[in-house]
Structures are given as C-alpha cells and as structure tokens.
Amino acid sequence: MLTHLEIDGFKSLDGLKLDVAPFMVVIGANGVGKSNLFDGLQLMSHLASAPDLKSAFTGLRGEPEELFRRNADGSPGTKMRLRADFLLPLSVTDPYKDEVKVEHTRVSYEIVIALRRDEGRETSRLVVEHEQALPIKSREDPWKPYGNKPSESFRKMFCKYGRQRPFISMETNLSRRQFIIHQDGHGGRKREMPAMAAEATALSSITTAQFPTLFALKQELQSWRFLQLDPMGLRQPAGISDPEALLPHGRNLARVLARMKAETASELRPNGVLNDISADLVKFVSGIKNLSVEYDQAQRQYRVQVNFGDAKNDASFSARVLSDGTLRLLALMTLLHDPDVRGLVCFEEPENGIYPHRLGALIHRLRGLVCDPFSKGAIDEMSLRQVLLNSHSPVVLSTLLDERRSGEAFWADIVTVASAGSGPSVKKTRLRPINRTDETRVDFIADTSPHVTDGEVRSFLNTVKSQG
Fold first, then answer.
1. What DSSP string describes 10-56?
2. I want to staple 386 with a disulfide (CB 3.0 to 4.6 A). Which of 22, 93, 163, 292 is the partner?
C-alpha cells in the first residue's frame, strides 16, 4: 500500500509531497495536472519491471523528453525524482510458487532518472542516476492515515520492523559506481551491479523471492491498476484466451468475471462473488436484479448478461445495450471485488455516466472497499487495497466535505512560481488537503502554501446550482 509520494521534475509536478490515504480524491478543474499525478504513479509502476527505462516510459502520454519538467527558460529538463513510502504485504509468492515471509514491511523507495545527451549526437539516453530502497524504522515512521495513527491491532498485524541496513544502496568511488542489492537477514550477502550508465532499475532485476522485501516491493508496484475504461470495449464478448486480470481499457471484462465466478462459487452461492457485485450495482443503477456470465461454446467466448425487473417482470440484456455509466460501474466493482486485486486502484472521473444523486452512495461504497487502518477486528491482507480518484465534480467534493475526514480530499490547481533573481516564472501543479472544520466553514489546510479562500470553495460548490 502506498502511504507517501514525492515527485520532482515530472511534467507539471515539482516539489510535490503528498501523504496518501487508503481512499483519496483529487479535485480540480480540467488542465490543472490531476492526470499528471496518475501518470507519475504509472511511470513508477513501470520502472519496477520494465527491461529498460525506454520501455518504462512507453505508453505514457508524450515522448520521454516531453515528460521531464521544462526549465524556466523553456529548455527541456534533464532530471526527475520519484520517491514513495510503502506498507508491504506480510508474504510474497514467486513464479515458482515459493512463499516467503516479509520481515520488514515499511519501506521507502527513491529513484532519480536523468536525460543525457551524448556529445556529437542528436539522440539522448535515459539513465538511472540514483536508486535506493531503505527500511522505515519504527520510531521514525511518519505514517498517520487521515491524521491519526493506525489501531494497535492493525499495526501489530501489518507494521513489521527490525531491519537497519538498506535494501538497495549505491556506492561510488573514483573508478566505478554500482548498485548494492542487500539480502534480507543478517548473513551479509549482496549483489553488485554496475551503475555508471544504468538504463534499467536495480529493482527490475529482482525476479525471485531470494530478496523477499524487494520482491514484495516490486510486486506491490506491479499490482497498481490504472483504469481508462472504454465503454465500446466493455460491451464486447471476451475470448477464452484473454487475460484473466482486468486490462486498463476493460475489454476482457467478461473473461475476468468468469474467472472470479469459478474461483468463488459454492453450493450455496453458485454465482460466487458475482452476487456481491450485483448487490453493489443495485445501489447505483435502478432496476438491476442480478448479473451473470454466459459461455458461448461455438464462439468460445464469454458474454456478460444483466437481468432487470422485479418479481413479476424480468428481462435479460447483454452488455452490448448497457449504458456507458453502467458499464464503467460494473468494471470498477469487478476490480474491487476481485480477490486477486490488493494494491492501488486509480480511476479518473467517477462521475462520468453516473446520476449525480447517486455519486454520494458510490463514494461511500468505494470507501468501504478499501483499507481501514483503524480496524480493531479481524484483518486480512485484502485490507491493504486502496483507491485514488480524480474528479472535477462539485457533487463529489460536497460528499467528501460532509464526511469530515481530513486527508481524504485534495484540491489541485496551477500556481506560478517566481524564479531566483530576475529569471522568468514557471507554472506547476499544487495539491492541498481539504478539511471541513465546522458546519459553515471550509478550510484548505497546507503547511506552506497560502490558504484558498472560503469564497473560492463555495464558488466551486455552487456550480452545481448554476448547472441546474
């Protein structure tokens, strides 16, 4: 689970420091950099497993050179830094089905990527300038979700400490520069890798649970899901050979539902977890009765069927005729009910296709499906799931303010930053937490940034009335 994020030199993000709650929403107008935050997270996820840096940048919006933040004079930047703190799962299973316990679950990972232009050439190369993975020590652990410490039972279950040495460090001397990958335990074994012109991360070289903590960190980053759902694709049947994990566009939805049904079905619940997904959909879409997946033997395809009606009149419809909003909800609920999904889920604009009066219910339900660090009851590793949304909906903001939970909603805007001396100014994305302090007042709380006025907040909320 991601608990803290820092980004420098990436697109419109610079000097960003953000404590990440299990459920969090970034609110702001179009064009202020909300999607850039998701892009930065996606790059960090890619860096964990891509064979080289160029591959890690593939698929992001823009060429690699365009993703570095531009300097005040308009010239392209040459360096970006990504850092994140994690709460890792208690065990990992490698491709050989070996399960190993993770003895230290609080880890900080940092990487600096530089864009180097070779002399005499027009091309440039991406290189790892710095990389490290460090244990977060018990007395120095800053994690306070929603401004409070996790419950004693949660900390006892998940927050494991005991490591002092780094997991990944760098060593530089006059003749060489190298990564040092340290093994867990006290044996002192380590792996050395040249780092003078590294074009891949040291973390990406971890392929087995021989290094349990680093393998768990890699799996955590690989598990992050970034949904960019395509309603046209969601309407299509899925082939038997399609992936069993939901793809970002969702075009294999029927295959995923078939796999989930097979894994969770029982004599008492023949549809398994599909019943739970149906129960959630009923809260947001009028008339839905249940959900099913049918297999077409001749076409070797799975198809989604949704039944509408009541005890007197039933009608079954395929996914082809469902609305865009219903399909997006179905895909999101499928992902969040999937027993194989335990990490971060990023979802843009949940308000698209949803009746505004039902947005509040959706926010409540999403919050109920993520980690509860304050739980005092029985906890399992499914508790480490988290959801990060971005939105430009005043209705979503109003719902969050009514909950009075700090650290859950952040305001995104663009600010102009003056350069040192007489140089030109630059613009960047700013994120500040939003907190409801009493029945009539809304405050934007920030350590160093100036506060946003109550009038600006009310102006944003009142756009609901102006659209009515």
1. BTTB-SEEEEPPSEEEEE--TTSSHHHHHHHHHHHHHHTT-SSHHHH
2. 22
DSSP state of 264: H
Rg (CA), the chain: 24
Residue 433: which H helix or E strand, with range?
strand 426-436
- Which amino acid makes up residue 326? T
pLDDT, tens only, 197-244: 688 999 999 988 889 999 999 999 999 999 999 999 999 999 999 999
The residue assigned the tokens 């029985």 is 378
The full DSSP string for 288-315 is EEEEEEEEETTTTEEEEEEEEE-SS-EE
**What amino acid occupies position 111?**
I
For the stretch 61-104, pLDDT in tens is 888 888 999 887 777 789 999 999 999 999 988 887 888 999 99
How do the domains of the chain map onto residue ranges? 1-224+346-468, 231-342
Distances (CA, A) of 83 to 6, 334, 346, 412: 5, 30, 18, 20
Identity of residue 80: M
